[in-house]
Design goal:
With 181 residues, the chain is mostly helical. The chain has 7 helices and no strands.
């Protein structure tokens, strides 16, 4: 990775922090800190996944990498969640609940990870990972459209900073590609 890549990553991460600081419930209480730790742990898991998946995408198509990672990740998830699933009243789950499960399984898992692994295969893990910083901006937009939440100036500024970081990494890639020709 070049200096511009690190600058773009740092800029996008700063944008994420600015976006999070715009939440009305942002705080340092124990419960909030636990939630922040879970988010950090999730991001570390995703970073590990990216590092592990990159060499696999050199030898396998993205669909196979996605299937393999879903199976390997799904087994511990099922084992961990089995006790809670056993207490659930499955008959109380209506068509909307099942539709949401199917929709998120198909689009948020299968389609998204195939696209992600294709990105890792085509442009590498570091350049693909920068797009993970867009999640707060996408969540803000989705919450505004679907839940009627207000978009605050701080969140808009955070989103602009995130987009700037992504653009720095993208521009660095284009500049590097031109200079190598």
């Amino acid at each position: 990775m070049r200096r511009a890549d690190w600058l773009g990553i740092a800029t996008a991460f700063a944008g994420v922090l600015v976006s999070l600081s715009g939440n009305h419930d942002f705080g340092l209480e124990t419960q909030m800190l636990f939630g922040y730790a879970l988010v950090l742990l999730g991001n570390l898991a995703m970073a590990s996944y990216i590092v592990i998946a990159e060499p696999l995408t050199e030898h396998l198509p993205p669909v196979r990498v996605t299937a393999l990672s879903t199976i390997l990740g799904g087994v511990p998830l099922v084992l961990f969640s089995a006790p809670a699933a056993g207490t659930l009243d499955w008959g109380a789950v209506d068509w909307r609940g099942w539709s949401a499960l199917i929709f998120s399984s198909v689009f948020a898992v299968v389609v998204a990870y195939i696209g992600w692994n294709l990105g890792v295969q085509k442009i590498g893990s570091a350049r693909t990972a920068i797009y993970q910083n867009l999640k707060p901006a996408i969540a803000m937009l989705a919450a505004a459209l679907m839940l009627g939440e207000h978009i605050t100036l701080v969140k808009v500024i955070g989103t602009v900073i995130i987009l700037l970081g992504v653009q720095i990494v993208r521009t660095a890639k284009l500049t590097n590609a031109r200079s190598e020709k």
